[in-house]
C-alpha cells in the first residue's frame, strides 16, 4: 500500500521528465555519477540497452542530456546532463522529497528515518542478489500486477 501510494504520487510529481521515474533515475545517475557511458548506465540501472537508447533519445530531445564522445574511447558515448537537466533534477529531487514526506506523514520523523533506512538496505540486498532486475519495472509490477511490463512501451 505504501509503495503503491508512493509510486502514484511520485509519477505525478515527475510528469515533466520524459518517462517519469525511469527518466528521473537516468538523470540522477548522469548528474551524480562519473559521466557514465550508455553501456555503464544501462548496467547501473538494470535497463536493457535498447530501451535505454530510446529513453536517452527522449531526454536529449527535451534538452536534459546530451551525448558526447568519450575522450578515452572514441567508440563510446558519454551521457552528460545539460544545465536544464541539472535544474530540472534539483526541482524533481525537492518534489520527490516533499511527496515522500506526505506519503509517510503518518509516521513520526524518527520512524520515517528508520523506514527509509530499512527500505534502502532491503533494496540494496535485493539488487545484490538480482542485479539484472529493472527497479522501475519491479515497482510497476508490484503496484499493478495486471500490467504487461514486458511488452509495454515506456
Task: Write a concise synopsis of the structure shown.
This protein is mainly alpha-helical and 154 residues long. It contains 7 helices and 2 strands, in the order ααααββααα.
What would you say this structure looks like, in words?
This protein has helices at 2-13, 20-32, 38-45, 49-61, 83-103, 109-129, 135-143, and strands at 65-69, 77-81. With 154 residues, the protein is mainly alpha-helical. It has a two-stranded antiparallel ribbon. The longest helix is centred in the middle third of the chain and has 21 residues, at 83-103. The radius of gyration is 16 Å and the shape is globular. Mean pLDDT is 85; it is low at 147-154.
Helix content: 55-70%
The profile of the biggest β sheet is: 2 strands, antiparallel
Number of helices: 7
Overall SS class: mainly alpha
Q: Whole-Å distance between the termini?
A: 23 Å
Taking pLDDT < 50 over at least 5 consecutive residues as the criterion, the unreliable ranges are 147-154
**Binned strand content:** 5-15%
Task: Please describe the topology of this protein.
Layout: H1 2-13, H2 20-32, H3 38-45, H4 49-61, E1 65-69, E2 77-81, H5 83-103, H6 109-129, H7 135-143
Antiparallel strand pairs: 1-2
Helix pairs in contact: 1-5, 2-5
Amino acid at each position: 500500500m505504501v509503495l503503491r501510494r508512493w509510486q502514484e504520487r511520485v509519477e505525478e510529481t515527475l510528469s515533466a521528465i520524459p518517462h517519469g521515474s525511469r527518466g528521473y533515475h537516468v538523470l540522477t545517475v548522469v548528474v551524480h555519477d562519473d559521466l557514465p557511458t550508455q553501456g555503464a548506465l544501462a548496467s547501473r540501472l538494470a535497463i536493457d540497452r535498447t530501451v535505454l537508447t530510446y529513453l536517452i533519445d527522449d531526454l536529449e530531445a527535451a534538452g536534459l542530456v546530451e551525448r558526447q564522445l568519450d575522450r578515452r574511447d572514441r567508440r563510446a558515448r558519454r551521457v552528460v546532463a545539460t544545465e536544464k537537466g541539472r535544474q530540472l533534477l534539483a526541482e524533481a529531487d525537492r518534489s520527490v522529497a516533499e511527496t515522500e514526506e506526505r506519503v509517510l506523514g503518518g509516521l513520526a520523523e524518527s520512524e520515517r528515518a528508520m523506514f527509509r533506512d530499512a527500505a534502502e538496505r532491503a533494496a540494496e540486498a535485493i539488487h545484490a542478489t538480482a542485479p539484472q532486475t529493472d527497479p522501475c519495472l519491479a515497482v510497476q509490477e508490484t503496484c499493478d500486477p495486471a500490467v504487461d511490463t514486458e511488452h509495454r512501451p515506456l
